[in-house]
């Protein structure tokens, strides 16, 4: 043909003077491709020059580029491996540099190449995935409205092209998910790059390809959260609070604000303390932005009725990665927020899964201890979980029931390492009750259930968990137990406000799982606004000793032996009086124990001061029921 494509002005003028049909342009491109195979490079190199010309394009140059790309779309059958220079130029194009007309023509060519030959599918998918992220010089532009509009123009076309290719090549999504995961930016990359890439991954999850690629996209995003999380050192979080208990430290956080935010006129949530902020910590700031992105995605899924499926994927990923991560700091709040969106289903399922892991001896001790730490923190902090559900999780085989059965099969004494799973369960029970005891006591039915749990027998067993668990938790628990008259202690405990002890360090192990409270307040500023409405801060907790009538009692009174002696009869008399004061139906005890599949033994005789006759517990006559099981 006499048609020539020229990159110079003369060539452009000549093309504008002649009205070429699409068919004529396609013929020229075909001729350029076939001529190259026999050694004629002139027209072929002109094509490559047009493709490489990206900066400061004049309108006529844009028109030439669009025409060339459309012509190439009609000639894809002529492409061969010898045209690798031209293919490399096409696959190296970034849509972020071009106008919508060029983007549309380029997308058309990419789809045509993918459909024409299976050998180009991976290259086409790779090119589209690379367009998930803008060139670095666009990052500042993304902070402006026109930059955000550009982002929408590019990504809308990218995802539309991916869906079109998936329609044409059914196996394309399976190849796509590998490419997307392989190209995910490293944690050291700039925050906007990581976030925008993850945004595209989540967009794929909720697209028509979600059924095929969604699970892997979600899991990969969670893995990235963990990568960022582990880069935050615990030294960035912990202050020198070795002489303070965990509850005291949180109350101190409530009383402080960040001075620099006050100067800006913006009052931060009160739980942020200047000693525990993450300003300037790049990993924490990236994680914060990633969590916000994930929370927004989950909120959209909940509105679209898609949360249940997404939650199953998150739950599986949590068990594989987050639960096994060394004391994960903030990434676990993805599960917390997902549960808050659907407490009845997701919220209860999460708790039951954690309990199942703790109860199963098939898991290693580390994982069981981690699971019960998550469970205790979750039951304590989740405002969306009813106190009745929390009590239900404590009884039966969930926590109290398992610890009770463990005691029944142990004759030894304190051994933090040998019984570390047991001690983690005991600490979990006490921790939950520090937060929930008063709420349970305010509901007669739940108060009855709480009094009928064998908590006293567990804690008074020779394994002596009160001496092994974190002193700050034991101290707060015993103080509330005394005020609620839950049971009587017959030993003096002097902790001197210790945060930890040698025994707690021993059962916590190198991982210090004795001090792991996964759902402590979220210290990431942007993420906190999603968590806060459904979160129980310690400052919100009404304890059993709030507005206590016993004025003037000192801290030491909580731990002193107030039974009047150490004999068994004295303990039993005190317990009987306590049950009469609280109007507890001890017939319900058999009902509750049956739920836990616990057979009354001599240890129950010790607990209640009754007699075992023919396998049935005979209660002292002065503790006769004033309530029926039906009323409970």
TrEMBL record:
Which Pfam families does the entry mention?
A: RRN3
Q: Where is region (Disordered) located? A: 256-279
Q: Where is the composition biased (Acidic residues)?
A: 256-265
Q: Name one GO molecular function term.
A: RNA polymerase I core binding
Lineage top rank: taxon = Eukaryota
A GO cellular component annotation here is:
nucleus
Q: Which InterPro entries match?
A: RNA_pol_I_trans_ini_fac_RRN3 (IPR007991)
Please give the family membership noted in the entry: Belongs to the RRN3 family.
Q: What is this protein called?
A: RNA polymerase I-specific transcription initiation factor RRN3
**Annotated organism of origin:** Rhododendron griersonianum
């Amino acid at each position: 043909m006499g048609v020539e494509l020229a990159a110079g002005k003369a060539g452009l003028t000549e093309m504008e003077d002649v009205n070429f049909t699409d068919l004529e342009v396609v013929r020229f491109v075909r001729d350029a491709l076939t001529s190259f195979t026999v050694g004629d490079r002139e027209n072929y190199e002109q094509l490559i020059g047009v493709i490489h010309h990206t900066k400061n394009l004049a309108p006529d140059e844009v028109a030439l580029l669009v025409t060339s790309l459309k012509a190439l779309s009609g000639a894809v059958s002529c492409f061969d491996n010898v045209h690798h220079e031209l293919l490399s130029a096409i696959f190296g194009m970034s849509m972020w540099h071009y106008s919508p007309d060029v983007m549309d023509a380029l997308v058309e060519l990419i789809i045509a190449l993918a459909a024409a030959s299976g050998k180009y599918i991976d290259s086409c998918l790779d090119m589209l995935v690379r367009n998930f992220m803008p060139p670095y010089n666009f990052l500042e532009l993304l902070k402006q409205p026109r930059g955000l509009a550009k982002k929408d123009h590019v990504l809308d076309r990218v995802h539309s092209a991916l869906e079109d290719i998936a329609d044409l090549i059914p196996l394309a999504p399976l190849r796509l998910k590998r490419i997307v995961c392989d190209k995910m930016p490293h944690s050291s990359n700039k925050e906007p790059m990581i976030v925008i890439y993850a945004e595209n991954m989540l967009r794929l999850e909720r697209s028509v390809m979600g059924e095929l690629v969604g699970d892997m996209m979600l899991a990969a995003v969670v893995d990235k959260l963990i990568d960022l999380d582990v880069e935050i050192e615990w030294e960035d979080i912990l202050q020198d609070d070795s002489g303070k208990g965990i509850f005291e430290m949180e109350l101190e956080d409530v009383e402080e604000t960040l001075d620099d935010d006050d100067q800006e006129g913006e009052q931060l949530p009160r739980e942020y303390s200047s000693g525990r902020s993450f300003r300037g910590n790049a990993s924490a700031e990236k994680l914060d932005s990633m969590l916000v992105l994930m929370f927004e995605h989950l909120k959209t899924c909940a509105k679209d009725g898609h949360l249940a499926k997404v939650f199953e994927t998150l739950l599986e990923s949590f068990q594989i990665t987050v639960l096994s991560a060394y004391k994960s700091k903030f990434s676990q709040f993805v599960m917390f927020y997902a549960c808050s969106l659907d407490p009845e289903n997701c919220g209860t399922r999460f708790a039951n899964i954690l309990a199942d892991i703790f109860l199963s001896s098939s898991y290693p001790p580390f994982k069981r201890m981690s699971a019960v730490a998550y469970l205790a923190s979750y039951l304590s902090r989740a405002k969306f979980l009813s106190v009745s559900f929390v009590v239900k999780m404590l009884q039966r085989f969930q926590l109290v029931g398992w610890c009770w059965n463990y005691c029944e099969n142990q004759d030894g004494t304190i051994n933090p390492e040998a019984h570390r799973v047991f001690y983690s369960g005991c600490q979990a029970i006490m921790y939950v009750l520090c937060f929930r005891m008063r709420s349970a006591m305010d509901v007669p039915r739940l108060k009855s259930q709480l009094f009928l749990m064998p908590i006293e027998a567990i804690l008074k067993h020779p394994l002596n968990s009160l001496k092994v668990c974190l002193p700050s938790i034991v101290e707060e628990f015993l103080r509330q137990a005394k005020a609620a008259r839950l049971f009587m202690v017959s030993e003096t405990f002097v902790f001197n406000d210790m945060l930890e002890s040698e025994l707690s360090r021993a059962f916590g192990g190198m991982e210090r799982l004795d001090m792991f409270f996964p759902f402590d307040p979220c210290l990431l500023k942007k993420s906190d606004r999603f968590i806060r409405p459904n979160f129980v801060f310690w400052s919100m907790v009404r304890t059993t000793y709030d507005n206590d009538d016993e004025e003037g009692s000192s801290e030491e009174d909580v731990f002193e032996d107030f039974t009047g002696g150490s004999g068994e009869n004295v303990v039993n008399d005190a317990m009987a009086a306590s049950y009469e004061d609280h109007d507890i139906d001890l017939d319900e005890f058999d009902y509750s124990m049956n739920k836990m599949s616990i057979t009354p033994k001599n240890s129950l005789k010790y607990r209640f001061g009754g007699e075992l006759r023919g396998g049935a517990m005979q209660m002292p006559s002065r503790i006769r029921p004033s309530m029926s099981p039906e009323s409970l």
